[in-house]
Write a structure and sequence with these properties.
Length: 118
């Protein structure tokens, strides 16, 4: 079995200007680039991807750096699968119930139970 301490995730967060048509085009191009690289949108300017290994995160990091728009701020975070599993998701002041790990890798699920945060 693979260790949750060796499997890696990458999260890209960005704040890009959209005041001009040129800026909007660059921001859209960057978002589409991330999607083509296998990233999924967590929030509007936050994308995440399972990478598998540290070597793969290094490779993807380099590719992202080569495609960053001229203007704006982009932050990249890499963390282990174990750390990703400890993220708490809140929706409308409610916490999503933590599930047992499935036998097969499941990245995102639409049918998670929601618990009150209070």
């Amino acid at each position: 079995m693979l260790s949750g301490y060796r499997l890696m995730w990458m999260m890209v967060m960005f704040d890009l200007p959209v005041t001009s048509a040129k800026d909007r085009k660059a921001a859209t191009k960057f978002r589409k680039f991330l999607e083509k690289q296998g990233f999924g949108m967590c929030q509007f300017s936050v994308y995440a991807r399972f990478c598998g290994s540290r070597e793969k995160t290094d490779s993807i990091h380099k590719t992202i750096c080569e495609n960053i728009p001229e203007k704006g701020k982009v932050s990249i975070i890499s963390f282990t699968d174990k750390q990703f599993g400890s993220i708490i998701h809140l929706y409308d002041r409610k916490r999503k119930k933590k599930k047992n790990n499935p036998e097969q890798l499941l990245i995102f699920s639409e049918d998670d139970e929601v618990l009150d945060c209070d």
